[in-house]
Design a protein that fits this description.
heterodimer; A: about 725 residues; alpha/beta; Ubiquitin-like (UB roll); Alpha-Beta Plaits; Rossmann fold; six-stranded mixed β-sheet; 23 helices; about 30% helix; disordered N terminus; B: about 220 residues; alpha+beta; Arc Repressor Mutant, subunit A; Glutaredoxin; 2 domains; four-stranded mixed β-sheet; 8 helices; about 40% helix; about 10% strand
Chain lengths: ~725, ~220
Amino acid sequence: MSDRSLTQTEVSLNPLSSERVNITIDGISLSVPKGENVIEAALNAGIDIPYFCYHPRLSKGDAANCRMCLVEVASTAPDGSVRKMPKPQTACTLPAAEGMIIDTNTEKINKDRKGVLEFLLINHPLDCPVCDRGGECPLQNNTLYYGASASRFTEEKRHYPKAYPLSAQVVLDRERCIQCARCTRFTDDISGDAQLGLLKRGSDVEVGTFAHTSFNSKFSGNVIELCPVGALTSRTYRFKSRPWDLMTQKSICSKCSNGCNIKLDYRMDEVLRVNARLNEDVNEEWTCDRGKFGHDYISSPDRLKSPLMRKDGKFVEVSWHQAYSLLADKLRAAGTNCGAIAGGRTTNESVYLLQKLFREILGSNNLDCRLDSNPLPASDPLFKKSLQTGMGNKIADLEKMKTIMVIGSDLQDEQPILFLRVRKAWRFKGAKVVYVSDHLTTDSTAVSDFASVNLIYQPGSEITVLKDLENALARVLSANTADSEPPAQLNTQPSEATGLSNNDIHLAASLLAKGEITIIAGKSVSQHSQYVELYQSLTNLLASTNSEGNLNIPVHECNSLGTMDMGMLPGSGPGFTKCAGGMGTAEMLQASADGNLQVLWVMGADPVQNFHNNELAVRGIENCPFLVVSELTLTETAKRADLVLPAVSIAEQEGTFTSCEGRVQKLFKAFEPVGSSKPDWLIVAELSAILGAKNLYFTFNDVLQSISKEVPGYEKINPGTIGDQGIFRTVPAAG
Amino acid sequence: MIQNGINTLADSYITHPVAQPEDKMQFSEEAVAELEEIISHYPERKAACLPALWIAQREYGGHLTPAAIREVATRLGTSQTEVEGVATFYTMYNLRPRGRHHLEVCTCLTCAVMGAYDVVHALEHALDISIGETTADGEFTLSEAECLNYCGNATVVQVGDHYFPDISPSNCLNLVEELRKSEKYTPALLADSLVKIQTPGASLKGGGSFKAEEI
């Protein structure tokens, strides 16, 4: 049986066997791990081998479609003579073996490459001048370096209708396709929806979906970047620009808490596309579709361009001076009778200065960042210990686990990059997965597809399920029967309370009993009214398998964690320090509804849309004596404000986000803010100065340095150390 | 199919199977038993893709509809796109409805030398269709086939499970008339012999003369 029939490959993506072999590539002697593909050995040593279908993150053995990486291979016979293999070999599927002598640059190989490229170009339309890929196209580059200058093919090329819509986002041009199967292997190996396949045969081969259904993968955008030609293109970017006309800036995706590293490709002040930026520890080189196609808000025409003040029931544009004067007057008049709500979408710097303004200058402790229903008050020690600290594991460490339990989460939707890691752990690292939820999704890919045991319980019985699981685990561990048959008293009869049979529970417990487990808990756990009991059960499961600390309850917005770290919680100052308590979101909205809160500042949040108690949110926001909202566009909350301050997007400011795993990463500024909009931190800094702040901040670096000095856990983070890939903040002991 | 409890697919399949709903499954009990028997010969279910498609072609009345492909994917626990890739790769799976009798004339070297194209043209003329087409009454589909490995009795025509050797422009019309009398639907027959790996039967004898009951 070949490797490709193994579904859970025992070999990792980088099979770094401890055994090493000596090979020679182009006369350079190398010592490489046994079994490493020749192409990897060569590329690591800086020797160029052209390729199209090979990709280090896709499973090996399925490649060798494109024939571009041909090399000559020889070995030394016992009599000392060097004997060549009669035909060239594909370096992408050839494992390195002792004594291999490889030539990548012989006359024969160059002739072969010319031939391969001539074949690949037979049906390729050569419409580079109008192709999105032109200028950054591997086919173009390899043809330039290795191809012939002309083709001998004079016959009719194959023709298909252009712009075949695979999905709402991805457009296929079958004429350009060279059948490398990277996209189809991506949907098999990485995203798991397996929606793309190669259909038909010979020169008719085309990429397609089953019966022309829509390619509705949650990760479909990645195939656009994977495609080594311009066959798969993005509907939004199509024909918008040439790559050499684009500027690129490093950034962090703001669509969820995973903190994907991205590149913003922009022209003037318009973001035209988003590509993934390599970060091995976070998103590797993937993005989800929300991140890849969801950044049109940055260059939206709806963006606010100047401060808006309500006069006679209507918004009028005013200068920043007028806006600051009004706000300063209102805040002075309100005294401590004011409050602020910041969403999880603002930078650490903005939130840090906002809480400083309220706590130190205005003397108000009414600060909160939580819009979700929360089972625990922010002052509860358990809140600090679990929900405020972030994940127990780092994202990259998830793939080292033997068993991964996902509970109460549609992971592919809530935490797409965590989902890809969990799938990678299962697919390439041999991990087993237990999925616990009250429903199965109809999404094109889900944890339940590859979980060894799915425990789909009756809604509301989660406490019982976890208790059952705890007991079963204790029984398995005490009997040491992890691998044995279930005891006789177990049956497959589903229990009435939970809908699960104790046989299934036993199988799940047997997997957990193998140790090295990690648990990822989703929204339905962290927002559960009996969170304390669930948390206790989960920690018990971990404790009994010596896996303490491997509990991951990821937050949901791009800077939810940083906002809490910066002290945007009632009674919890920067870095979890204790401070005087104040009102939380719900209390503030209630007080505002009752007319008891003079000024409410909502920064980067939309309580009217997103607060769990919509009725209270609308009442609080509409009745607020003076509501100031800093936002990008006129959200439902901003429409009801007395003063709207235009803030800027991730592309127009420097700033830091703290991802769900506690990695502090930097946003780099791509272009100038639209209109007269300003970064939130600058708005707060300028207002603080007007209100008499002692410390003045003029640049992003000033604020970050101040955070580094004053926020426990952020000591190591300063403009000099943060770099492109971010660094971890430490979790201070709860106090 | 992903459901509650132990997921037998987890260790065996790499992809996300989009399941055919239980009530839309069309395989008969015998077909399911036959498929399971074939699957038992292989280390993993998806290896039985080719015979499974033959069975599907038979069970779905002679050609593979999207529903047939989805049922195969569901029964093998693999992705429907992959099964469609297989079904569209091989020319002997019918993706469109065929006539009641599918005439496949071998036009490879030996048969061609022995006048296969004369047979093709005679059939085209007699049935008033071209290669690849089906007659208006739905009785016959005519296609070319690659070498049917019966060169000793060229030209050979395959109809369903049966080979008809020594066909010439004159006796091919006789074959057509005999086939008209047969009640059967030959494209759906094909799986019988191939799946059960029988050798073609009586029709190989007595070249050139046909009886309806043979077919």
